Amino acid sequence: MGIQNLLWQVTKKAFTGGIIGLTISDRCCSVVPVRGDSMSPTFNPQRNSYLDDYVFVEKFCLQDYKFARGDVVVFSSPTHYRDRYIKRIVGMPGEWISSSRDVIRVPEGHCWVEGDNKSSSLDSRTFGPIPLGLIKGRVTGVVWPPQRVSKIG
Questions:
Q1: Do 113 and 125 meet the contact criterion of CB atoms below 8 Å apart?
Q2: Which residues have C-beta within 8 Å of that of residue 13, sequence separation ≥ 6?
Q3: Three-class SS state of 133
Q4: Is the peptide bond before 129 cis (omega within 30 degrees of 0)?
Q5: Is 129 helix (H, G, I), strand (E, B) or coil?
Q6: Contact 122, 85 (CB under 8 A)
């Protein structure tokens, strides 16, 4: 009976911890890896490095869509929902953006995002303005590797 009681207690605590962790990750904040060099030199400044930056993403900005030009955000791809991108907001709803082909007005409820390394970035220049509803959070700092820990913005 002692082993069953111990296993039950451990299972309950693990389940509770998992639910709390999932809630925090979904509603408050999370840590995500930055893949590729589209945001270099802000993130992953050393090309061909096997050590990606990991960033802290806060999600309180999702209430009332509190974003500003210059914010670095994580968002779902408009074409492949499971893909996530990290880019900088360069245009807010109602603003005019000069792209390589034309001058575009950002529609209401959308924003224009671009990578800091424009030569290797899939961003609004490729798929147009993104709906604000696709944004998953705002990047506030680099948390890994230790020598690159810093605040963003």
A1: no
A2: none
A3: helix
A4: no
A5: coil
A6: yes
Which tokens go with 11?
């299972």
**Cα distance between residue 36 and residue 97, in whole Å:** 25
Catalytic residues: 38, 87
Cα–Cα distances in Å, from 115 out to 27, 30, 84, 146?
Answer: 25, 21, 13, 24
pTM of the model: 0.78
Tokens of residue 150, six digits = 């810093």
Rounded distance between C-alpha atoms, residue 62 and residue 29, angstroms: 11
Distance CA 74, CA 113 (A): 10
DSSP reduced 3-state for 139:
strand
Rounded CA-CA distance 140/146 in Å is 16
Structure confidence by residue, pLDDT tens digits, 11-70: 888 877 777 766 666 666 788 888 888 888 888 777 666 778 888 888 877 777 788 899
Residue type (1 letter), 40: S
On whether the CB atoms of residues 115 and 41 are closer than 8 A, the answer is no
The terminus-to-terminus CA distance of the chain in angstroms comes to: 56
Cα–Cα distance for residue pair 49/8, rounded to 1 Å = 44
Give the tens place of pLDDT for each residue, 63-90. Answer: 777 888 999 999 988 888 888 899 999 9
DSSP 47: T
